[in-house]
Amino acid sequence: MDSYSVLYSSAHRTGLLAGFQRLRTERKMCDVVLQAGGVDFPCHRALLASSSEYFWALFGETTAERLAASVSLPALTPEGLDAILDFLYSAWLRISKETLPVVLEAARYLQVNAAVAICERFIVDGLSAGNCCVYANLAERHALSDALEAANHAIATEMRVLLQENREDLLELNIKSMMDVLDADEIPGVKESELVELALDWLDENGPLPLLKSNLLLSRLRFGLVASSDLPNLSHKAMSTPLIRSQLTRAMEYHGSAIEKPIRQSKQTTLRSSTSRVLLVGGGSNPDWPEQQVMTFDPRTKTFSCLQSELPMRLKHCCVCSIGGFLFVIGGEEVKDWFQDGKNSVTILTSNKMWRYDPRFDQWEEMDCMLERRSQFTCCIVEDVIYAIGGRQSQAQASVSLASVEYFDMTLRSWKKGAALPNPIFGHATTVLDNTIYTSGGVQGNHASILGSDSSYSPDHHRETSKDVLCWDVTGNKWGKKASMTIARFGHRMATANGYIFTLLGMYEPFCDIEKYDPDSDNWTRLRPLLNGSFNYGMVLMPSGNLLVFGGRRWSDGHEVIVKTVLEYDTRKDLWREVSQLPNGTTGVECTLLATPE
Question: Could you tell me where in the chain the CATH 2.120.10.80 domains are found?
């Protein structure tokens, strides 16, 4: 067989369509006339049949239209048919926000799938608060699944604006879109009570609905996010069904559970916020005067904002943690200013108080106090139980360090004593690995009096800093010892990531160094040091396994400098990078992750 080549010309395809378009424009060789809305469109059967499943069937061998001189299409508008014919003859689709409905109707009716796909892409790319409801209805009517999903997501994202400016469009939404939106995990800036009101108004506008559909719609509301005082006022005939009444009852029971709220979380009580933010509690630009304002950091946008309500008191050296979408602020030193005898004075008192913050209603609540007052201690979470470990407290003008451990189990509703440490300790760090608590460093024994209430540099303090690492399986009743760190540390941090424990920085030189603990080999490995270390910084472990470090203080030319940088440490690659800047230099903050309303 002789060899040969097969070559392709895209110019021929383009020229072929251009030729057909010229024939159509000049009305030459046209063998059928399509009619819509009283307007005639001379066309070529062969091109129509080869481009559309509808026309292929219409001009089949056994149909009455096979040889008809004209075919009426009463379901289509002249504008829609003209746009689709232009597309068939040129591969270019003329489309705008105003003509989209008729063009899509014609494309779907004539089964021109390529044109339908273009219309769907037009919807997805052009979504905004002004058109997302209209586009959602259009996508639902024509079964455009991708466009419908995108439009429903846009409605949830823009709900705050829609409720204020386009409420009528929301009331005209199709039921599938309304259900999907009310099922969304993120509806920023909107209170649940507003969504309840919207759902009831939508039912009034579009009802009456069958009981099943009404229940399906209302069951997507999160009644646990509605204030208990407002729940009894939700009166509507659709709310009287057994299913919805049971959900309202569970919401009231949740509100009445008080202490147990964090461990009684469900979808009905979970904030509509898919991303947790970093909360920065305490601390500030002055080490001796902590701020009451709680800052938040959004890891997605790398921006800062503040909670509406402030911390009930000024605290430093406290501990923070989060359980079930609640923030807990525990112990520390209460800093108060007094005006007495014409002078301002500041008093510092070691605290045993525990405050709980509920972001659902922006409320602080004082909980059961710890058994002991604690400052410069650590806390951690094991299976929704809070553990407070060591620390120090002021007694009779002196500071005494603590070996005691206590825990707060919300099912027991109070603080209980845990296994005491072998020695009193403060300024240590704590983390949890496989339900085992690890502590490291700090100052052991009763040496707390050498520092007073400040955490500034002290050579005497440095001599007592420990390398020891202790561990406690909370099912047992005593602490064990693990391999010591390579560096004695105080005021450092620990974190568990990717199955390893990391200890970072600290109060004294060398405070730039980092090391990693392998629990399988019971061994520490020195990692790459940070070029400019700091102390009294805040740190949080991200879901990715990376660590974020906020502010702190460092030594520069013999002076302390307050740091503004936000650093990210990649625990897998052993790399640091700067990701943001704090609004102001900040030191002494405590950090945790928490979902908050936007």
Answer: 277-594
How does pLDDT run across 141-199, given as a tens digit for each residue?
999 999 999 999 999 999 999 999 999 999 999 999 999 999 999 999 899 999 999 99
Residue 430 vs residues 380, 435, 578, 590: alpha-carbon distances, Å? 7, 12, 25, 13
First to last CA, the chain: 73
C-beta separation of 350 from 395 below 8 A: no
φ, ψ dihedrals at 339, nearest 5° = -115, 110
Range(s) within the chain of domains with CATH label 3.30.710.10? 11-210
Average pLDDT, the chain: 89
Kindly list the distances between the CA atom of residue 313 and the CA atoms of 91, 97, 332, 364, 375, in Å, as whole numbers in the listed order. 68, 55, 11, 11, 15
Which segments of 233-298 are extended strands (E)?
Answer: 277-281, 295-298
Q: What is the dihedral of CA 503, 506, 511, 517, to 10 degrees?
A: -10
What's the CATH superfamily of 277-594? Answer: Kelch-type beta propeller (2.120.10.80)
Using the Cα atoms of residue 131, residue 132, residue 133 and residue 135 in order, give the sign of their dihedral: positive
Q: Which 8-state DSSP code applies to residue 271?
A: -
> Which pair of tokens denotes residue 557?
């030319």
525's tokens: 């490995």
Contacts of residue 25, defined as CB under 8 A and 6 or more positions apart, other chains included, come to none
Q: How far apart are CA 328 and CA 351, in angstroms?
A: 14
pTM of the model: 0.85
Amino acid at 46: A
| Whether the Cβ atoms of residue 173 and residue 133 lie closer than 8 Å to each other | yes
- Please say whether the beta carbons of 528 and 516 come within 8 A: no
Q: Any long-range contacts for 212-218 (C-beta under 8 Å, 24+ apart)?
A: 213/175, 214/238, 214/241, 215/241, 215/243, 215/244, 216/179, 217/175, 217/178, 217/179, 217/182, 218/244
**What is the pairing mode between strands 425-426 and 326-330?**
unpaired
CB 384 within 8 A of CB 321: no
Percent of the chain with pLDDT over 90: 69
What are 585's two structure tokens? 């230099």
Please tell me the CATH superfamily of domain 11-210, with its number.
Potassium Channel Kv1.1; Chain A (3.30.710.10)
Closest CA to 595 of 182, 243, 185: 185
| Total residue count of the chain as it appears in this document | 598
Condensed to tens digits (0 to 9), the pLDDT of residues 380-413 reads: 999 999 999 999 998 766 789 999 999 999 998 8
Cβ atoms < 10 Å from Cβ of 348 = 19
Rounded CA gap, 318 and 332, in Å? 4
Q: pLDDT tens digit string along 233-291?
A: 888 889 999 999 999 999 999 999 889 999 999 999 999 987 889 999 998 898 888 99
